[in-house]
Amino acid sequence: MKIIHVVGARPQFVKYAPVALALSRMKKEMNIDLKNRVVHSGQHYDRNMSDVFFEGLAIPAPDYHLDVGSGAHGEQTAEIIRGAERVFAREKPDVVVVYGDTNTTLGGALAAVKMHIPVAHVEAGLRSYNKRMPEEVNRILTDRVSTLLFCSCKNAITVLRSEGRVRCLSGGNLMPRTGLARKDLGCDIDHPLAINVGDVMRDVFEMTRAEATTTSSVLSHLSLEPRGYILLTIHRAENTNQVDVFRRIIRFVRRVVDGKRVIFPMHPRTKGILKKAKVGLPDFIQVIEPVPYLDMVALVSNAVMVMTDSGGLQKEAYWAKVPCVTLRNETEWVETVRSGWNTLFENFKGSWSCQKNRPEYYGDGQAAGRMARILLSFTPNGAQHG
Ligand code: UD1
Is the pTM for the entire model greater than 0.90? Predict the structure, then answer.
């Protein structure tokens, strides 16, 4: 059997890492003839946005590079579709796996579905209900053309069920690790299957945390004390495209920091826009280059607070028991807000009411294993291998 994974933006490398590991383990254990291929769209191309993640997470190098680079949404997505289609025509995969909500996700999914190749969407069912976000459009469309909808949490299943005819396993609860019958997994493009497998980002976060504590030198390199700094990231188009919006966020950060140091690993998009608009940052904010995953885990785990517009970082803060302010008007990760560990910046009153026993909304750190098991039993037309 052949699986193709389409990745291209930084968070997708992180999400793919535990899936690659789980697939290669199961391939050996079950002696399956699996051909696993990776297509890198080239949406992210700077070394510190791409290569360092492959190296740091020990992901085998991509089999194909589409080299699409940056561009307007239409142009970038079209280039990804064009490149992915050629690869799929040559490789004839049984299933294509796409991750998250970027233009790479949508491009890979559209190319596959038009060629009647089943699409598996990792992180399906998330919604911000803000269609002005490019990511929201990408995830809605990707979900609509997917056959396998791998969900990170129960809420995502509820969303998908409310939107149309989707069958779900185990009542939307975390999929049991054993005891599923072959008939349970039957699905095709007209009968999609939504499965709560848990969150692959939790898998990789848990896998990396101990190593981050012992190996990462980012804290000493920046002379940071644990709990002595706030971690800040801002990269979303809606927060960076208009300088006024960005300035408003910085004013908010200034009000909240209370003399603490702020560390800001800056995404190249933000850097480029600030440079062009000649916007400076106040002295208490220390801008650093984007960091490898291991260092990010160390930074988030030791921060006193996280302020971010990133989706992944909201959950990483939750897992690390670090309170978070989300620099957006809405979040897809509503559970983190419900439990009191995260708050939208407009609602922030200066403190959190964090639930001490954080519910495990996002699985048990074994999401990739569940996904691998389902993927390996999957062939087109809804039939499954034994
Ligand atoms: C993309 C995703 C976003 C995700 C983010 C993760 C879309 C629509 N958005 O946003 O959902 O949260 O990735 O990081 O797919 N650039 C570089 N070097 C790079 C990559 C980008 O300089 O390696 C600069 C370019 O100026 C580029 C800009 O960043 O135009 C934006 O890059 P792009 O991939 O379009 O979107 P992101 O903001 O990274």
Answer: yes
